Amino acid sequence: MKPLSTRATTIRPSPTLSLNAQLAARGAAGEEVLNLSVGEPDFPMPELARDYALKAIAEGRNRYTDVGGVPELRERIKRKLAEDNGLEYAPGDIVVANGAKHALFNAFLALCEDGDEVVVPAPYWVTYPEQVRVTGAEPVIVPTGAGLKLTADQLAAAVTPRTKAVVLSSPGNPTGATYSRSELEALAEVVVRHDLFVVEDLIYEYFHYDDGAVPSIASLGPELKDRTVVVNGVSKSCAMTGWRVGYTAAPPEIAQLIRRLQGQATSNVSVVAQYAAIGAMDDVPWEAIKSYRDRRDLAHQRLTAIEGVRCGLPTGAFYLFPDISTLLGNRTTDEFCSELLAEQGVGLVPGSGFGAPEHVRLSYAVAPSVLETALDRLATFVAG
Ligand code: PMP
């Protein structure tokens, strides 16, 4: 037989998805699993999202929609971007995709090709480098050090004549770190000077525990908006990960290419999910989102009480990403996590998949009682 696609075979499977499948299988087999590896909120989706979905079904909305999404949803997203981010887009510049993951994929496909480089700050969300690779471009991993955020100097040092774009995620997964306006301004100067594009992932935007809104680099002025693809969606903010609704907002030329790509790949997102997303955006579960701040504090306090664990207090998302290097001995983080799971039934994600092999990712999007028990067991495991 002829060989299969090199491009496809060099893509690494998502470590978070395979770990979750493994943990689910243990749970199904009757073993107790305290799963702190989840990447989705545990609160219910908004009522209005459900109502709008049921209404769409009852009204017989069964047909293809515009590739980029129904006009009502794109109008709603347009309003959201204006109100939350100070960004003015035409509805045609917005393309609704199957989750933020698909939206990101569309963005990378529209921007990158063989020979390009894309700067991916580490720790990174596992999917960025792999999606970049699919386009034929090369992800250039830039370690951010203790600050966990890319600095202007680090970006400038990573730029080569082949650099096409930089990925920014704020608040970040797995770091929970949020870029301030002044940090973005410093990065923006480098971006403009070197004529780069920015792929800006704001999927955790509403999970922000400091005062004020999460700033978007695209909002820093037309020079930035013209070179940025903003990615967002309802998966995390409205606890609708299974509904698969995300979107890009991009300059017209890029948005047209994204439309074209999506038009030949998937066409529109499920029409029912699109209507659900309108309801979701009108009924964001703010109270539930805000309550995650207490969980963050609880998890952080318990975690940092364990000797040897080093972890700053993240400002966003729902993850802690401690450095556990002093606890590893001669184990890798992957081995540490496997042993923890086997001995204590606690599931954490090793940092290796995020480009930070001395860290683990812990999600606090679980019931506080689970969080407390899991962290007690982690303490026992470490002490033992
Ligand atoms: N970006 C980041 C940083 C994420 O963590 C995730 C989900 N884990 C996504 C994008 C994808 O979101 P969606 O479920 O909407 O595809």
Automatic annotation (TrEMBL):
Reported cofactor(s): pyridoxal 5'-phosphate
Membrane spanning residue stretches: none
Listed name of the protein: Aminotransferase
UniProt-listed PANTHER family: ASPARTATE AMINOTRANSFERASE
Gene source species: Amycolatopsis methanolica 239
Family: Belongs to the class-I pyridoxal-phosphate-dependent aminotransferase family.
Entry EC number(s): 2.6.1.-
Pfam families found in the cross-reference section: Aminotran_1_2 (PF00155)
Keyword field: Aminotransferase, Antibiotic biosynthesis, Pyridoxal phosphate, Transferase
Keyword Transferase recorded: yes
Transferase among keywords: yes
Ranges for domain Aminotransferase class I/classII large: 32-378
GO biological process: amino acid metabolic process; antibiotic biosynthetic process
SUPFAM superfamilies registered for this protein in UniProt: PLP-dependent transferases
InterPro entries: Aminotransferase_I/II_large, AspAT/PAT-like, NHTrfase_class1_PyrdxlP-BS, PyrdxlP-dep_Trfase, PyrdxlP-dep_Trfase_major, PyrdxlP-dep_Trfase_small
Gene Ontology MF terms: pyridoxal phosphate binding; transaminase activity
